[in-house]
What does this fold into?
Amino acid sequence: MKLVISLGILLTAMAVIPAARAQQEEAAAPGTPAATAEGGGAPAAAAGEEQSLPPISAAETILWMGDQLKGIAEPATLKYEFRKAGSLEEGFTDRVHLHITDLLPEGMKKATVDFFTGQRHLYIPPYEAINGNVLLAIFLQGDILEMKRLTEGGTRYFQQRIKYALATNARIADTEIEFDGRKLPAKQITITPYVDDPKAEINEKFRRLKDKAYAFTVSEQIPGYFYEIHTLVPAPADSAPGAGPVLEEYLRLTSVGPLESTTAASQ
It folds into this structure.
């Protein structure tokens, strides 16, 4: 049976910046108490409340702001490879295609996404006007749902941890990628949203994933802006030498070419 991801769910993942702005405005209102953070940087809001965030961070700006599709001057298909591996459970390799189907005024684009093939294929409604690479939001929402499945935790909880990490302690580094036979300048943003999380002390399923790191590699020099989204749960410290990761996933750009048909999306 094919799965369906609603546009509303996907946009939830892309609400990082608007939500942060709303929180800032609310926090600035007269009489609004300031929230604090405790426990190694973990959000300290009580159940049902939201942790107020600092001004939009450099990491959030890099990941969510700007015209990420400006380098696409004609309809095109961006091809990505997805791979899941690790000792936790069986992995697989599949493909993801982002089709830029039409160019609109003011730099906006129409787009469709073919996410996975066969029984794993996810139906995602078409986008009528975007200027950002929607694969980041789709990947993160899928990651959040996987964390929920693996730990029996809450969707909202994992979403807030990622938001908070990007807003407060993301690391940004200059790097270099190789794409289409060229070496290109890039930036990499890394976060470890759960490493100091008190929940790891009481949830065995969550404890094995608490060291999960996220790395986002972007470059202004490639179509679609995002080169790779990579997550890694390393082997436990007491593992045998040479032990592989507990869980590793990546979504990596492999090629860009003329617009291809989407009729065989589920094949």
About this structure: The longest strand covers residues 92-103. The longest helix spans residues 135-151. Confidence is low (pLDDT under 50) at residues 1-49. The chain has one domain: 3-28+55-258.
